Amino acid sequence: MNQHSDALKTFFHLDKILDEMQTQGFSIIDDLYPVEYMQTLQQECSDHLDQFRKASIQDGVMTEIRSDHILWIEPDLTLASQHIAQLEHLSQDLNRYFFAGIRDIEAHFACYHAGEFYALHRDNPQQKNGRVFSTVYYLHSEWQNDWQGQLRLQDIQNQWHIIEPKANRMVLFQSDLLHEVLETKQDRLSITAWMRNSDPVLG
């Protein structure tokens, strides 16, 4: 860990998160990190764009449901790993409050180029992958509304929400909620992560 590590731990507003997760199944956290850290994390993502690969759904099977490109986060991506460490701290609080049984985090960088999207889906179909909560953290420096690329999400009351991919914003939501990424008109960078309570069921 480097100089950013200690500063990051203070940026989760836990009471707000727990209340919103209880009442609507998702929470939006703006201005998550110091700008300096966000910028260096964005640079780490940009430096590895040539390693991104077209995303698949499961077991390497390509599909027309999504068109984004991803890079799974490993320990050598040191800045992204600090973000994962903060999600681990948050998952401990979610475990205490919701008895979620979260044991690990899986995550990847995601890049949506202009014209790319992710159609309506759930992150834990058939309850086979152990995903309990999903997070999306937006990495780009700025975002204009007419660039689109929003997250469209149905909450636990079956109400639909359109969430702008604002820079330095994180969205936390139950992995069983229906959601989609609308087609973007501008390159859109993020880290998608899932808090899991078990290993995926293979078969």
UniProtKB/TrEMBL annotation:
The keyword Transmembrane does not apply. Pfam families: 2OG-FeII_Oxy_3. Residues 98-197 form the Fe2OG dioxygenase domain. Gene3D superfamilies: q2cbj1_9rhob like domain. SMART domains: P4Hc. It comes from the Bacteria. Its cofactor is L-ascorbate. This is SM-20-related protein. It comes from Acinetobacter marinus.
